[in-house]
Amino acid sequence: MQVSLRIARLIFHFLRGIALAVLVFPRVERALQQSMVRDWSRRLLEICGVKLVVHQSGEVLEHSVMLVGNHVSWLDIYVINAWRPVSFVAKAEVQKWPIVGWLAKTIGTVFIRRDKRSDALRIVHQLADALKSGERICIFPEGTTSDGAQLLPFHANLLQAPIAAMAAVQPICLMYENAQGRQSLAPAYIGEVSLGASLISILRAAPLTAHLYITAPLGACDDRRELARCAQGAVHRALQLLQQRLEQSPEAAVVVNAQVSGVELN
């Protein structure tokens, strides 16, 4: 599909999302809100030419869990929501993004100012309360995006929230694959790349496969730095497994790309 046609379909999709967020979202129950977020995110991936494949290596927790993962692109949020809607923690600058920032706020994203040390403490209390009430929350403790080829160090501050709430932590890993069965860096939203340029890069690289690896939940821990170390180790191992899988059987990866867009479990 031509990039210009995909852009036109994306504009319509975002306009539809705004209409749903204004007219429907506030008036329906939580379960239906989450279903709307999941379906809208899946449709977004489809328009962008991205297929989601989910890998699981253990029990997937439904409630009172903090997902902790690597961060490659703004697209990560929609990949995760296409699998299972969660509340995210994002940098305050995201609120200023056209349309995307407003939609993120509408679906419950928590924004943090990284230039204010006191803001982290406020967010920790807010996240702990949400976890105690049974919410699913996702954070990207690298603190910024990378190209996805390797991990950046995990920051531990926000991991105080699951400790305070006595909630579980479940590491996740994201990796993107191109049509040749190799890891794709096209979705990477790094450096001085603008949101628009990042979007064009994704559309030009399509078709892509987004691999989402759900690792086993971590054991109980009362030290946030140790928790960050364990989470980073789990995400690192998952990323290595995904990368090795492509290196060992690129032909199989191409076949996956050729299938109908949707969500698959491996």
From TrEMBL:
InterPro entries assigned: Plipid/glycerol_acylTrfase
Record protein name field: 1-acyl-sn-glycerol-3-phosphate acyltransferase
UniProt keyword list: Acyltransferase, Lipid biosynthesis, Lipid metabolism, Transferase
Keyword Manganese listed: no
GO biological process: phosphatidic acid biosynthetic process
PANTHER family in the record: 1-ACYL-SN-GLYCEROL-3-PHOSPHATE ACYLTRANSFERASE (PTHR10434), 1-ACYL-SN-GLYCEROL-3-PHOSPHATE ACYLTRANSFERASE-RELATED (PTHR10434:SF64)
UniProt pathway annotation: Lipid metabolism
SUPFAM superfamilies per the UniProt record, alphabetical: Glycerol-3-phosphate (1)-acyltransferase
Keyword Transferase: yes
GO MF, one example: 1-acylglycerol-3-phosphate O-acyltransferase activity
